[in-house]
Write a structure and sequence with these properties.
alpha/beta, eight-stranded mixed β-sheet, 13 helices, 26% helix
């Protein structure tokens, strides 16, 4: 059923086997995976079925240190969550992203890529991405010729993204959730506190308020926090009336990661090769997009993270499009139309090959594999939201190793591209400097990762390999906040894969 929590038909106390907090990609994926099971499921959504300004304002927070966008524009608080402005670009994390690497502090997940692969394949279908194909796609007409087959240099490897329609989870899966008999969805249901029993280390109740003042209490055997990479750590830090949950080692909110994208220079190609590298054939919406990263053997040998190099024709198109998107999201106007227009912007325009033109410039921008850093973190603010819950305060950081690894990566890739004889790379002076300097016009994204990171050791993370919060018996997290490392892949596909894996675990523990 689909119910407004404000309805007089909704009682003040609800019971369930599983309570899921947040109806975005993770929460909806878990709820769908539990349809038809023996479990009674309650799925809570803070916002409504469509964008509402008052609900969206609950995402407000503060920024300390390095610049970032206002926290109420990068996340959407209504049914379907942030998939309502998802551009659709998808790929799994790479095998090396899960590995322990001595040169990368705190690297290594307590689960392997191989263990997650069957869930990646299932997530591929949930995200409407077709076949699970991220290698060997040279026959796809929308993948530019430059990226067909493997990139012909031993130090670099082609990386491929695939685009979902994009899937708006709240729209695509609404009817299915409405018609089920064992899953009840409540919208306008704002979780304001989690209460635990110290003796049993279990969450005994989830306290909910609506903006109209109605109070609900949910009592569930298992509780899953699926409210996103910023809201989940906020709920853990503010739980138990401000005492917190799962934070005995001061780990909640630490290791916050993004996928910073920085312009590092330009690639000057001869005109005859230029159309081969372009990211989108003229007049065709892209199905695939290609990029380059260092071969994993080179990453291991040099001790470098898994950065990726992307190509655009004109940086201003991308950056201006992002600014327009932020403004549009904040106003709540015509999001779907605007996002589709932005997807076109991100593809750029075909490069000019006018008569007599010998070279065409492509902007090189790198998506960083942002390294885990305990000083890059989310904290509770002194400011309160409408319900008296502390807002979040972001203080995210880039480390010196982030900078030096980017420089080393680009020097290797620039040399490799030069050896191919297709053109030359010109790196920007700030990157070649001996002093660390990040350009002011860098782009940040909405990939909020790491603040409840997965770790076998509670001294370096918040959840275990089953996504259960350390020190609790029945509290789980389904979010990119559990990512142990960031990689460079867009996180949605991995979020859904982890959610489906968690759904299987919940069914097993409830037998």
């Amino acid at each position: 059923m689909l119910l407004d929590a404000n309805s007089p038909d909704v009682g003040e106390t609800l019971t369930a086997d599983v309570c899921i907090v947040g109806a975005g990609a993770a929460g909806i994926s878990i709820a769908r995976a539990l349809i038809g099971s023996h479990l009674k499921v309650v799925l809570l959504e803070s916002g409504g079925l469509e964008f509402e300004t008052e609900s969206q304002s609950l995402n407000k927070g503060g920024i300390q240190g390095r610049y970032y966008y206002d926290l109420d524009v990068g996340r959407l608080r209504f049914f379907g969550g942030t998939t309502n402005h998802w551009s659709g670009w998808s790929r799994p994390l790479d095998e090396i992203d899960f590995e322990k690497r001595e040169s990368i502090p705190l690297s290594g997940w307590p689960i392997s890529h191989q263990e997650l692969e069957p869930y990646y394949r299932a997530a591929q279908q949930v995200c409407e991405l077709g076949d699970f194909a991220y290698t060997g796609v040279e026959n796809q007409q929308n993948l530019p010729a430059f990226f067909h087959k493997n990139h012909p240099h031993p130090k670099t490897v082609t990386r491929v993204w695939k685009r979902s329609p994009p899937t708006r989870f709240g729209t695509v899966y609404r009817d299915e959730l409405t018609q089920t008999t064992n899953v009840d969805v409540y919208y306008h249901a704002n979780v304001v506190d989690l209460i635990t029993d110290p003796a049993t280390q279990t969450v005994t109740q989830v306290n909910v308020l609506t903006l109209s003042g109605k109070t609900l209490t949910i009592q569930a055997k298992q509780v899953v926090l699926a409210a996103g990479g910023i809201e989940v750590p906020r709920l853990l830090l503010s739980a138990n009336g401000g005492k917190g949950i799962g934070n005995s080692h001061d780990q909640v909110g630490r290791y916050f990661m993004l996928h910073p994208q920085v312009d590092v220079g330009r690639l000057m190609l001869d005109a005859s090769s230029a159309t081969q590298i372009h990211t989108e054939p003229a007049g065709i919406k892209p199905i695939y997009r290609g990029g380059l990263s260092l071969d994993e053997s080179v990453q291991r040998q040099k001790g470098l993270p898994n950065h990726a190099v992307l190509f655009t024709v004109e940086r201003a198109t991308r950056f201006d499009g992002l600014k327009r998107m932020l403004k549009q999201i904040k106003s709540g106007e015509d999001l779907e139309t605007h996002i589709q227009a932005l997807i076109g912007d991100l593809g750029g325009a075909p490069p000019s090959t006018e008569a007599g033109q010998d070279f065409v410039d492509f902007i090189l921008h790198v998506r960083l594999d942002h390294l885990p850093n305990p000083d890059s973190r989310l904290r509770l603010s002194d400011k309160m939201d409408t319900f008296g819950v502390p807002q979040i305060e972001m203080d995210w950081k880039l480390s010196h190793q982030d900078f030096t690894s980017l420089k080393q990566t680009m020097l290797i890739i620039a040399e490799a591209l030069g050896e191919l004889g297709m053109g030359r790379v010109q790196l920007k002076s700030w990157l070649l400097s001996d002093e660390e300097h990040w350009p002011e016009d860098s782009e940040w994204d909405f990939h909020h990762m790491g603040a409840t990171r997965m770790s076998a050791d509670p001294k370096t993370g918040v959840v275990d390999a089953d996504c259960r919060v350390h020190g609790t018996e029945n509290l789980y997290v389904a979010s990119s906040s559990v990512f142990s490392t960031a990689g460079f892949s867009n996180p949605t596909l991995t979020i859904v894969a982890l959610a489906l894996r968690l759904a299987d675990h919940l069914k097993a523990v409830q037998v």
